[in-house]
Design goal:
Blueprint (H helix, E strand, L loop, with lengths): L2 E6 L4 H12 L6 E7 L4 E7 L2 H10 L8 E7 L14 E2 L5 E9 L2 H10 L9 H16 L3 H10 L3 E9 L5 E7 L4 E4 L6 E4 L11 E4 L4 E6 L3 E6 L5 E2 L3 E3 L15 H7 L1 H9 L3 E2 L4 E2 L2 H4 L2 H5 L3 E6 L1 H18 L3 E5 H4 L10 E7 L5 H12 L3 E6 L5 H5 L2 E4 L12 H21 L4 H22 L2 H11 L4 E6 L4 H15 L2 E6 L16 E6 L5 H12 L4 E7 L4 H5 L2 E5 L8 H18 L18
Parallel strand pairs: 18-19, 18-20, 20-21, 21-22, 23-24, 23-25, 25-26, 26-27
Antiparallel strand pairs: 1-4, 1-10, 2-3, 2-4, 5-6, 6-7, 7-8, 8-12, 9-10, 9-11, 11-15, 12-13, 13-14, 16-17
The chain binds 5-amino-5-deoxy-1-O-phosphono-D-mannitol (M6R).
5-amino-5-deoxy-1-O-phosphono-D-mannitol binds next to helix 10 and helix 17.
Length: about 625
């Protein structure tokens, strides 16, 4: 969490840093700050609130906008409440060093006590202010330069960090380092300018060349001279690998939509095509996926597949469980990465672990991967962000190719993750002979129809908006589904909770009678997924049970359904497809519904309270 930006070069740093912070706001948005160095003075502006609040301040104080060097930060609070003082950047006690930090220094308290005993005083409650003073203390006691001091200080800390540090006495230099939190360095014109950011979006219009630091690396960036990358623990110089960015500016802008979430919902037809393009080849009757093909024996000889993920990605993993078991007949366990990593799980060399993550930076998922690797399992990543930590940490993988997802509520990431999992399941089913060639071929043909069907579903947006208007003031909602659509019920509930703050729960429809049914009365909207082949009769009985207790029923049904239409208060029709592929369709109206309710309630759809897009802390 938290986003950091920086610039050193010949342009005005202010617009680069402030606009960069706006693009990184998805990472955290409870306070923001900026430091501009004008060649003489380090000007600091910071405030509780969003980057727009920071802009109000910097607009009043024009002077603070001058300078060719600047660093900025947008915060998701960990240590210390969101207030002006705890906002970054943080100065060292002497006022010579300044830092922005994304991550957590776990042993900050011990270091702080030691520094206090040496006469340091602290203004904030943050671990970051401790780190900048530790660097200052090391610099003083060792008599070394900034880069070395940062390196030595970092060997004393336990935790995660991506940092950018500036020293007034070395005004042509920025030092950055990472462990567990991402950092990208944009390499500008003939080495005359450099950009630093948590991801490449802040500098995409200036350069297509970027270096992604690896964990445990530190870079000394010198204006006009270039970059030196070293290992923090052994001082070894590392060859910095400059990559060409594929990202475009258009991809990270709203493109006429009111919110990123809405844009991303509408991007799903294209995102799904991008996910299967070049992989699904119906004419040849095959699915090609390099990451799976190259490691096919691992998959075919696996005793079981363990899927690890968090949040929406975990829900996609649950759909994966149904897919793998149903099609390929391989036993699957789906685990919350946060639980898996700490419960001493039984993992063997015959397990295949699939880690799913949109951002590729989720700390718990990353830790689960490291644990699985240490036990000898083969680990396969399903990530959206190219070059992310999870993409690099796994043995092999498949990108979802959904394009940047900026709205905090995951939408296209979910459907593209399900698309990748469907492809893998189908591929393994074919190899294992658990699906006939005819059935396999039928799936490929059906999958090809999905993008158009999603497009068709998006046209009922108005109808969903009308339903949203009826239920926007509900205090609680239930979401029910069975089989492949049980995870969709969970996902629907999560979408509503996270952006509208309405309490919602997802359940397998049949579980209702074991408790949740007690909640049902005339004030309880119940969203039920009742697709034609998904244990239809059983779900219809569940709907009757809700009806007889006066619950309000909003049902998602297959087009042409008449039975549920007669019982439900509202029905939303989805086009007909294979039951295993219905999650790709049933999820769309639920995304739209949450979106409209949140907008009607005046909530901040793209930046819901207390959340951040990538959760790089435990
Ligand atoms: O980047 P990841 O897919 O690893 O993120 C996992 C969760 O933090 C994420 O899905 C979260 O639950 C979303 N806010 C849900 O919309």
């Amino acid at each position: 969490m938290c986003g950091i930006t920086g610039y050193i070069g010949y342009r005005d740093a202010y617009p680069i840093v402030i606009n960069g912070l706006k693009r990184l706001e998805y990472r955290g948005y409870d306070s923001a700050g900026i430091m501009m160095y004008d060649g003489d003075v380090m000007h600091l502006s910071k405030t509780k609130g969003k980057v727009s609040d920071l802009e109000v301040i910097t607009n009043k104080e024009e002077i603070r906008k001058e300078g060719r060097i600047g660093i900025g930060h947008t915060r998701w609070a960990t240590h210390g409440v969101p207030n002006d003082t705890n906002s970054h950047p943080h100065f060292s006690q002497s006022g010579n060093l300044v830092i922005v930090h994304n991550g957590i220094i776990e042993n900050y308290d011990t270091i702080k006590k030691e520094l206090i005993s040496r006469g340091y005083e602290f203004q904030s409650d943050t671990d970051t202010e401790v780190l900048v003073n530790l660097i200052e203390e090391v610099k003083k006691t060792e008599g070394c330069k900034l880069g070395k001091a940062v390196q030595l200080a970092l060997t004393q800390v336990i935790g995660a960090y991506a940092i950018a540090v500036f020293d007034k006495s070395k005004p042509n230099e920025l030092v950055v380092a990472r462990l567990g939190s991402p950092i990208a360095i944009g390499v500008g014109n003939e080495n005359k300018e450099f950009f630093v950011a948590s991801d490449a979006s802040p500098f995409i219009e200036y350069t297509k060349n970027a270096i992604y630091l690896e964990d445990g690396e530190l870079a000394i960036i010198k204006k006009d001279k270039g970059i030196k990358v070293r290992k923090i623990d052994n001082d070894k110089l590392v060859d910095a690998n400059i990559q060409e960015l594929q990202l475009s500016l258009e991809q990270i802008e709203k493109g006429g939509y009111d919110h990123f979430m809405l844009k991303e919902i509408y991007e799903q037809p294209k995102a799904i095509i991008d996910t299967y393009r070049g992989r699904m080849l119906p004419d040849e009757g095959i699915i090609k996926m390099a990451g799976v093909d190259d490691n096919i024996s691992k998959f075919l000889n696996a005793d079981r597949i363990i899927i690890v993920a968090c949040g929406t990605s975990w829900h996609a993993g649950l759909v994966g469980e149904y897919l793998f078991e149903d099609m390929a007949r391989i036993p699957v366990e789906v685990e919350y990465a946060s639980e898996f990593r700490y419960r001493n799980p039984i993992i063997t060399e015959k397990d295949v672990v699939i880690a799913i993550s949109q951002s590729g930076e989720t700390a718990d998922t990353l830790a689960a991967i490291k644990l699985a690797k240490s036990k000898g399992a083969f680990v396969f990543g399903v990530c959206n962000v190219v070059g992310s930590s999870i993409a690099r940490e796994t043995h092999a993988g498949a990108y979802t190719h959904a394009g940047p997802e900026i709205g905090v509520a995951s939408t296209k990431a979910f459907t593209t993750q399900i698309t990748v999992l469907s492809l893998i399941a189908l591929k393994l089913a074919k190899k294992r002979g658990t699906l006939s060639q005819t059935a396999f071929q039928q799936y490929l043909q059906t999958m090809q129809l999905i993008p158009n069907q999603v497009e068709q579903l998006l046209k009922i947006d108005k109808q969903v908006e009308e339903i949203a208007a009826v239920y926007k003031d509900a205090k609680n909602c239930l979401y029910l589904g069975r089989g492949f659509n049980f995870p969709v019920a969970l996902e629907g509930a999560l979408k509503l909770k996270e952006i509208s703050y309405i309490h919602a729960e997802g359940y397998p429809a049949a579980e209702m009678k074991h408790g949740p049914i007690a909640l049902i009365d005339e004030n309880m909207p119940v969203f039920v997924i009742a697709t034609k082949r998904g244990h239809y009769e059983k779900v219809v009985s569940n709907i009757q049970e809700i009806k007889s207790r006066s619950g309000k029923i909003i049902a998602i049904v297959t087009e042409g359904d008449e039975t549920v239409k007669e019982i439900a208060d509202h029905t939303i029709e989805i086009p007909e497809t294979e039951e295993a592929l219905t999650p790709l369709l049933t999820t769309i109206p639920l995304q739209l519904l949450s979106y409209h309710i949140a907008v009607m309630l005046g909530k901040n759809v793209d930046q819901p309270r207390n959340l951040a897009k990538s959760v790089t802390v435990e």
